[in-house]
Amino acid sequence: MSLVLFHLANAIAFLAFLFRDQLYLRAITVVSMVLQSVYYFTIVGGPLYNPLFWKAVTFLLNAGMIVLLFRDRIGYGIDPRTRPLYDQLEVLSYGQFRRLLAAGRRIDGPAALIEEGKRPGALYFVLSGEAEVRKNGETLAVGPHIFLGEIAFLTGGTASASVRLAEDAHCLAWDVAALRTLMAKERAIDIALRGLMNRDLAAKTARSALGPSVDRRKAAGDQIAV
Ligand SMILES: Nc1ncnc2c1ncn2[C@@H]1O[C@@H]2COP(=O)(O)O[C@H]2[C@H]1O
User: Fold this and answer.
1) Ligand 1 in contact with 163 (CB < 6 A)?
2) Domain Cyclic nucleotide-binding spans what residues (predicted)?
3) In terms of DSSP bridges, do strands 111-114 and 138-142 run parallel, antiparallel, or are they unpaired?
4) Which of 120, 147, 156, 182 has the fewest CB within 10 Å, making it most exposed?
5) Residue 54 to residue 57: CA distance in whole angstroms
6) 0.90 exceeded by pTM
């Protein structure tokens, strides 16, 4: 009977390695450690304290990691105001997200954020309320939960519009140089931010109006590139 327990517990530990999901891998390892502990505790001539010690250490380590993984997945402890950014970034752990927040600062509206034609000093994410994007004499209300200044951030160029944070609106701001340093140091933050900026840009492009139609440009005598 004890030999069956020994093989069963080790087979379960072996099975754990088949899972890519850390949560499953660690949960199954915990089960295996419990069964292996029972085996070394009840073995004839036992308990065998040396293997029991290492089973207990492995159990505790994995149980602790399960708690951390769970906290990451449910986003426990995250300020509800920054929660939309955490949810949209998707792949960042709680710790990575906290480091990203620590690199930024909060700005309360009304505030002028970006000036068209100039290189923005910061990248912004609207947490609540709206921002006014002004371009070609037209004003567009945008937000919340979008980036501002991401075009200049990605291209390294100048701002395509002027942006003002509306009254009672709030945003996060990251100094461009500091954020680039953080992204170079933390690959996960780099990937998560770039992914979200691309999604944001795609949504803005899909919503934006088209320019003059081909027929109107032809009528105006414009050259149409083919
Ligand atoms: N049509 C638009 N819709 C939403 N946001 C815009 C639009 N045009 C410009 N912006 C924002 O205004 C910002 C101005 O600086 P950027 O060009 O870096 O990035 C721009 C976008 O974040």
Assistant:
1) yes
2) 113-183
3) unpaired
4) 156
5) 5
6) no
